[in-house]
Specification:
With 178 residues, this protein is mainly α. It has a domain of 101 residues: 3-Layer(aba) Sandwich (NADH Oxidase). The protein contains eight helices and two strands. A two-stranded antiparallel ribbon has the order 1-2. The longest helix has 24 residues. The relative contact order is 0.14.
Length: 178
């Protein structure tokens, strides 16, 4: 959020920092940009790999890259020409992800996807692995995965507030309709 907040300040805006929405916008924008890079790279024959483990040591990564306040590492991305033609990894069916008008139960689709992923992991090059998509998600929900991230983000200027502090709120122009 460094560039957009500085741009807003140049216009004379009284910028409120540390809002949860700012963290979400920055993360979504980063993911959208990376996905566009991935599509472009793959169309040129490059392979890609996202590296979420970059958040294991976010301060060390920030120091290494010289990241200023209001900038944080979301993930890494490796690009290169594959040494071999890897097997195509199954993907969750579109019907499980894309919802029309209302959210629908996708438990049967997820169960089928777990079966497909188990078969893929058992037959893939580079060694079999006895797991499924659902089992791979377990650490996200049964442990405190990367508990250091909240403190790190607060130090970077992302306090994840949902409203301005009372003192700041009092100094902001009121929203009146006329």
């Amino acid at each position: 959020m460094k560039r957009p907040t500085e741009a807003a300040e140049r216009t004379g805006a009284r910028v409120v920092r540390g809002m949860t929405e700012q963290l979400l916008v920055a993360s979504v924008d980063t993911a959208l940009m990376a996905q566009n890079v991935a599509v472009a790279a793959e169309s040129e024959g490059l392979g890609i790999c996202y590296i979420g483990g970059i958040r294991n040591n976010p301060q060390q990564i920030s120091d290494l890259l010289g990241l200023p306040e209001h900038v944080y590492p979301v993930f890494g991305m490796c690009l290169g020409y594959p040494a071999h033609d890897p097997d195509v990894k199954p993907r969750l069916p579109v019907e499980a992800i894309l919802k029309e008008d209302t959210y629908s139960d996708d438990s049967e689709l997820v169960a089928a996807y777990d079966d497909a992923m188990h078969a893929y992991y058992q037959s893939r090059k580079g060694g079999p692995k006895d797991t499924t998509w659902s089992r791979n998600l377990t650490p996200l929900f049964d442990t405190k995965l990367r508990p250091h991230m909240r403190e790190f983000l607060v130090k970077r200027g992302f306090e994840t507030r949902s409203r301005a502090t009372p003192r700041l709120q009092a100094s902001l122009p009121s929203n009146t309709s006329g």
